[in-house]
Write a structure and sequence with these properties.
The structure is a single chain. It contains 16 helices and 17 strands. With 416 residues, the chain is α+β, with helices and mostly antiparallel strands.
Amino acid sequence: MTKSRFIIKSVKWLIGEDMIKQNLCAKYNELQKELHFTNFAMYACCDGIVYYTHDGKSAGEKPIGELQTSGLKNKIVVKQFGKARANVIVFFYSQNIEKCAKLGGIPTVLDDYTEMFGKKLKVVKKDDKKVLRALSKAKNVIVDGSYCVALARSIDEAGTMARIIDKNAFVIGKCEGEYVKINRIVARGMNIGYTRYYSKGNQDRVWEREKTQPINTLKDDNIEVDDIKNSDRRIEALTTAKKVYQDNFTQGTWGNVSVRIDDKTLYCTPKAIGYGLLTPDDIVTMDFRTMEQVEGSTRATSEKGIHCRIMNEKKDAYVVVHAHPTYSSVFCAQNRVLEVSSEGRALLGDKVYCSKHAIPMTKRLSNNTVNAMNKKAVFMGNHGVAVYGESIDDVFNVLNTLEKEAKMALSHKKRQ
């Protein structure tokens, strides 16, 4: 047995037989089913062994020293893993990204992209030196006419990056040049706060878990609204959050949910824990009058201020959802008001307003959000949406109606 094969067998024994390969394929298939990427491949590196899949059906493995260095993809993989700049690398392409590449890339317009990457996603000509140089300064780049590449800390984060890049590419395409950019210095600060402080501990835990346990993608759970209703409101908060993620109203750890307990307390989802990892024990109890955490082993969502203010001021609010749905995000990027059709006015009122942008996790964000809320929904400038409902059924009706109205309005504008 060669030395490299002995290393492979030893690593497998330590981390569990083929678990990284299994999780790579699971994430690949989840993304491909939803987004239909081209030029799609995922790589992960653990203890000098590179695991990879190009089709989601099977995965291969090689010691990093045995990887070919011919071809740009291989050069990227060897260099980035060799310098320990990532645990996972994902290559992917879509019509949304292709359209954005022709427009010059993806600017920092929405907070989810901005927090994750901090700067414009640039388009680089397919030249080995230029691409490698660009990746030495950024975690993502579009190789012109070929694919986007992103550097991640876990398999789960690689999937989130792909989703967020594709969604932001879609939004920029729909904006047709009419959007409000986030200040460059603010964007950089948001990225530092997110990567070094907010998400670092979560991603470290996720990567360690992915080595030994199968990941739960949640996409095949088929949660129905009736499945959420439960006498235990802690379970309602948990399952509502998972359905919001399952229905593609949010990505990664973005978005959060709260459910009213009584006239002073609520249950809410925690800070920086992925939806697939959530358990009932992670749900936090808050006093929404004082905005203080009453109970819970985890820390409350960083946007707890939004939930507490809505629960305190809207006496009919039973459940609050903060999410990042795709079509609504166009209105957030444009800081634009939605004129609601007659069909949607019972739930949304005649208009859905957009609040001014504020840095995430700040009091100004929660104040701006609640102050701009007309009926049960509001667009958050450069961010996402906040909605509330008088019941579980009601909040999903509001969320679905808002996204439907946004889609209709964009279609109508295109026809004009």
